Amino acid sequence: MNLIExxxxxxxxxxxxxxxxxNFTLAEGDYLCVVGENGSGKSTLMKAITxxxxxxxxxLSIAPEVKKRGIxxxxxxxxxxxxxxxxxxxxxxxxxxxxxxRGFLWSRNAQQRAADAMEMLGVSDLAPKxxxxxxxxxxxxxxxxxxxxxxxxxxLLDEPVTGLDPEAVHGMYEAIRRINLERGCAVMxxxxxxxxxxxxxxxxLSLCRGHSFYGTVDxxxxxxxxxxxxxxxxxxxxxxxxxxxxxxxxxxxxxx
Amino acid sequence: MTFGEIFSSPFLLRVIGRALTVxxxxxxxxxxxxxxxxxxxxxxxxxxLSHVGxxxxxxxxxxxxxxxxSMEISIxxxxxxxxxxxxxxxxxxxLNGDAACAVVSTGAVAVGTLLYNLTGGRAGxxxxxxxxxxxxxxxxxxxxLISVLLSAxxxxxxxxxxxxxxxxxxxxxxxxxxxIRTRLFSLTLSVLTGITIVVGMKMMGAIMxxxxxxxxSLTAMRLTGNFRRTVILSAAISVACFIVxxxxxxxxxxxxxxxxxxVNLAVFCAVWGIAWIAGKVKNRSIKT
Lengths: 256, 288
Fold this sequence. Notes:
Chain A is an alpha/beta fold. Chain A has helices spanning 42-50, 64-69, 88-93, 108-120, 136-150, 166-183, 194-200, 217-237, 247-250; strands spanning 2-13, 16-27, 31-35, 57-62, 72-74, 154-158, 186-190, 203-206, 213-216. In chain A, the strands form two sheets. In chain A, strands 5-6-7-3-8-9 form a six-stranded mixed sheet, with helices on both faces. In chain A, strands 2-1-4 form a three-stranded antiparallel sheet.
């Protein structure tokens, strides 16, 4: 079953077009990596999926199951206030907020979910600590545990490893891989780090202007090679030789 | 006035009891709402709404109903303003939040002052709505009833929706993605803040009312790194500071609002100072 389907989607933010002709699908249990340089509309696409931004044109359909169960979202590291007075346990528990009913205290079910998520991400012993006392890597793990509590259908990760040291980056990728494989949870990840993303993901969506692509990782590698060759050809003969420009085909949206 | 005088006169006891009840309940509500407001960087909304409350009182005096029905007029005005400020600060960035607050609050004070001038209001009226009434006799039974109802709603909202309040205060984008109606939350927060401000304004004054929203939560945040404890501590600090300030004002014939805010300020400075020194000592012991 497809969780997200996007067809010829155009997104605008503050009245400026952020991305055009975006085509992709995200199936259950898939691992999709979204790449592209700054300003290519990656963040706006995330906002469109969480419902903060309405599509300017085209179709973006999100399965009712996702809407009902919620999305586990991991924001960019800078978006969380460092000095917020909250314990790790409170933050992870807040992932269970949708569907835990009313009241001042968390249900036993939520507490169990939070404990499992903390165990899985190796942050159980940090539970009573304040968020501001954690290192960057620890904090990202805590926020990932919160996202895991929020949904076992779809995780949306916005630059999950930006600003972390190499060891923490490795740990984060491994944790994400385990959530994807063991829980069967679909992952959609925005990343700057293309080479790592290619190693981890099953599908790639590239939002580079005029080079947009959606397909498998192998397909993306081929597409990039063709692009490079086409650039070389263009360089050698000038733009008047359309026969030498195979990337015009790829521009139409890759494998779709 | 001495304690002996207060307890020997049934009239004074009634007046002071009424004012004390209203003050304690308003301090409780403002401290609880204040934690979310401060952490969501909405402190200025509280400040803006208090100035709109001044406009509401000016409108009431303009309509000739005076202080008797001032709440009936200022509460709807403040609710409208809180929706407006939220709208302005949430739209696509045409006017950012703090600019929106500044526009609304200074505009409201200017128009309110002109209304007082045009309807022949006395300078004393303006002064008491800005700095709080000089005497607590003006607190009526109706004020008490409204403050009881308001605090029931605020405390009830916090007890019933505590988890949502935490999730949205901490990270609105996440809560929205997880399926929480975050706009409804922001609206509830600012409308309840507006009503709290109007109820507390008579005693504290339009200029100083936002202090009892901001100070207790900032002090509490310095003392604990846990959200639940921050809320409870903030409420306790706020009520304690109010009681101290209120009796100090009664006994020394001071302005109630100013006395309460000064006590809050003193506690805030003391806690920050102690925390700062404790931090230095800790650093030194790590180094040696």
